[in-house]
Amino acid sequence: MKLTLPFLSLALFFAVLDSAHSRVLPVESAPYARNSGGIPALVPRSPPSAPDSVLHRRVTRHIRPEYPSVSRRQTVDNGGINTTTNPQPIRGSKGAPFLHDSNTPIDRQNPDSISPPPTDAGNVPNLKWSFSLSHSRLLNGGWVREQTVTDLPSSPGVAAAEQRLSPYAYRELHWHRVAEWGLVLNGTVRITANDEEDRNYVGDAGVGDLWSFPAGIPHTLQAGPEGAEYLLVFDDGNFDAAGTTFMLDDWIAHTPREVLAENFGWNASVFGSIPSPDPYLVPAGQNESWLSLEEARQAVSTNPGGEATPYVYALSQQNRTQAPGGGGWVKVTDYRQFPSSPTLASAYVHVEKGGLRELHWHKNAEWGYIVKGKARATAFAGGATARTFDLQAGDSWVFPTNYGHYLQNVGEEPLEFIEIFRGANFGDRVRFDDFSLTQWLALLPPSVAAKQLNVTEALVRQLKRAKQVIVAG
Asked: What is the pLDDT of residue 73?
């Protein structure tokens, strides 16, 4: 409202009628006095405490109206994990507590699912599977539990299994139409195999070591004196499909004995004691012995083709590559280091407490498995969509091709996990590669990156030009 002289005169008139005790102040003494330029003063003039009067109060209400106090400072949600023993679907002012029971232990393991960070958006499919949810197949001599495409539909290219063998027990003689890759989690595994060139191989894999059999290679596994537990990975997510695994006794049981006798040159009666089809595991006998590796190799030394390309790779002996960003190390393996694994590449990653596997992406889908520790990961699927997952030992995940992601150590101990890659097409040879977000920005002209991020060029110039791989916490 614009104050005019008639308006002020009218205000003075009613003020005098309203109170006989009111008094008029000289204009130069009033706290709302104008300055010499005719512009309302922003602060009261002296004296600092103006006399109280009806006129003062009424006129001041027009010139300086009182508004309710409004705080402009807002709490910024930086997307941290909501850590609480009683997780609720609440974040800031959004959500509401449960009014019905929830599976609290699972909620505690997945805080970013029940209370996702504000950066999550859109509909990203489930990319995580816990082997604790897999059905365990209990057998004489151990057990096995799998993760296939029916468990994790987002992983059509890779399936996996955890397998346990009792001391001296065998995984029966078999072969696959897909490649098999293994990592020993505990114990010792003896590998026996032969190839199509009449060559055979016997080798031992200890904790942290790998083995790999290309498609079609017949093989068996035997646990050492302490037993063994290991992770198996296959380059086809539909691993349970018919025509994927072929086992010796299953074939024998479904072949006429007359044919078997002619094939092997044995009496047909011999085949009456063949084990029932598909025992899967063969437990150790009462007097089972464990030959030294030298003795086991000597037993097949007269085979005509000699020794095959090694199917075991001593990853435990490979030198660690310290991450330039500090906070951890990696061991990368593909066909360049391990020729027997042409279709599956891997990286074993160690992240110190508080560290971060930097923001990156790959040309091929990444399948992963937590060996130990706890992690947090966000999958950026493009198109303004993203979803955050919580992972712990025994969990697997998949990031489809080109999905941006990171893995952050959110536990109290070092985090260790495996990254697995297969080619875009079944049977393609694959090598490990990744693209670092930080490096990409650092290699651009600073003005380009600064404009895109709306930051100064000085900040862009601080970015590292080398891949950091792991960033220290």
From this structure: 56
Q: Which two three-digit tokens encode residue 242? A: 């018919």
Residue 405 assigned to a binding site:
yes
Beta bridge partners of 405: 360
DSSP state letter for 39:
P
Give the CATH number of domain 318-471. Answer: 2.60.120.10
Query: Fold identical between 129-313 and 318-471?
Result: yes
**pLDDT tens for each residue of 168-192:** 999 999 999 999 999 999 999 999 9
Identity of the residue numbered 461:
R
Highest mean pLDDT among 9-18, 62-71, 436-445: 436-445
What pLDDT score does 311 carry?
98
Please tell me the predicted confidence (pLDDT) of residue 305. Answer: 87
Measure the CA angle with vertex 122, ends 116 and 124; round to 5°: 80
Which of 146, 352, 416, 419 is an active site residue? 419
The span from the CA of 464 to the CA of 225, in Å, is 49
First to last CA, the chain: 58
One of 2.60.120.10, 3.40.50.300, 3.40.50.11030, 1.10.150.530 is the CATH number of 129-313, namely 2.60.120.10
pLDDT for position 66: 54
- 350 appears as a binding residue in the annotation: no
Q: Can you tell me the mean pLDDT for 141-156?
A: 98
Angle of helix 5-18 versus helix 54-63 axis, rounded to 10: 150
Model confidence band, residue 304 (pLDDT cutoffs 50, 70, 90): confident
Count of positions (residues) in the chain: 473
Tell me, yes or no, if 419 is annotated catalytic.
Answer: yes
User: Domain map of the chain by residue range?
Assistant: 5-63, 129-313, 318-471
Looking at the chain, the whole-number percentage of residues with pLDDT higher than 90 is 78
Structure tokens at 431: 């090598």
C-alpha–C-alpha distance, residues 470 and 321, integer Å = 11
Residue 311, classed as helix, strand or coil, is coil
210: CB partners within 8 A, 6+ apart: 181, 182, 183, 184, 312, 313, 315, 333, 338, 341, 346
pLDDT at residue 439 is higher than 90: yes
| ∠ CA 22-17-1, rounded to 5° | 85
pLDDT at 46 over 50: no
56 is in an annotated binding site: no
Q: Is 180 annotated as a binding residue?
A: yes
Longest dimension (CA), the chain: 133
Non-local (6+) Cβ contacts of 294 within 8 A are: none
Residue 213 has pLDDT above 70, yes or no: yes
